[in-house]
Amino acid sequence: MIKFIAADLDGTLLNSSHALPDGFMELVEKLYDIGITFAAASGRQYYGVEKLFMPVRDKMMFIAENGGVAYEKGQLIYSLPMPADDVLAMVHEAEKLYDKGVRILLSGENCAYVADSDKDFSDSCNTYCARLKTVNDFSVIPDGDRIIKIALFDKNAETQVYPAMKRFSDDFNVILSNTCWVDIVGKTVNKGTAVTKLMERLGAGYDEAMVFGDYLNDYEMMSCCKYSFAMENAHQQLKSAAHYIAPSNDDNGVVREIKAHIPELKI
After folding, report:
1. pLDDT values of the chain reduced to their tens digit, one per residue, 267 residues
2. 1 CA to centre of own chain
3. Domains in the chain, CATH or no CATH each
């Protein structure tokens, strides 16, 4: 029997309008009632994801910052922050591409941070960061917050900032998370590691879990369990790594596969 389900959000569970499937809160509740825990597994900040699922927050788990943190019932249960000196070194490297349109977002355990000189970028980040502050200097992070992830925005991410930051890949995971974003996290940080931790916490075995994703920051999840799904709209490399292909995010693929594989779910 399935005990645990994890799904990425953008491009996976959410449709192209960034909306949850109709009735998804009720589905989470029904899963919970039959002993199955659902987890949102996102590259986004936790507080923004939590807001999306607030009616069922205490009946599910959350993986955020591409696996850098995990939460249960509003409590931090897992965190892998990055060394401050290394964060600054990578920030300084990314700043060299500022004139080419690269912008920097630092995600901490408590808040996200952008430079106060980037008002347009800050305004755009407000749409998906529930907690965001502007700073004069990235070397001075308020309240001693620990940085979990460096997110770099670049309209030409795959050909510009991604190759430039790959020099740090011996010590950090440098991830092309979608066409416009590169995420940098600790070497042991990925959604797959976080999924494995939560499966252990719940006592879910390899054949008792389902995972869903669409992009390369979901890659490690595909080997965590028997029922790993890449969406029809997924990156080709992810499709090659997954055990199954689900219908696209606009065809309600996650919900359709959950219902198909869990006969105990009477809907």
Report:
1. 999 999 999 999 999 999 999 999 999 999 999 999 999 999 899 999 999 999 999 999 999 999 999 999 999 999 999 999 999 999 999 999 999 999 999 999 999 999 877 777 887 788 778 899 989 889 888 788 999 999 999 999 999 999 999 999 999 999 887 888 999 999 999 999 999 999 999 999 999 999 999 999 999 999 999 999 999 999 999 999 999 999 999 999 999 999 999 998 865
2. 26
3. 4-79+189-261 (3.40.50.1000), 84-186 (3.30.1240.10)
CB burial of residue 44 (10 Å; 0-12, 13-18, 19+): buried
DSSP the chain: ---EEEE-IIIIIS-TTS-PPTTHHHHHHHHHHTT-EEEEE-SS-HHHHHHHTGGGGGGEEEEEGGGTEEEETTEEEEE-PPPHHHHHHHHHHHHTTGGGT-EEEEEESS-EEEETT-HHHHHHHTTT-SSEEEES-TT--GGGPPEEEEEEE-TTTTTTHHHHHGGGTTTEEEEEEETTEEEEEETT-SHHHHHHHHHHHHT--GGGEEEEE-SGGGGGGGGSSSEEEEETTS-HHHHHH-SEEEPPGGGTHHHHHHHHH-TT---
| Contact by Cβ (8 Å): 40, 49 | yes
The pTM is what? 0.88
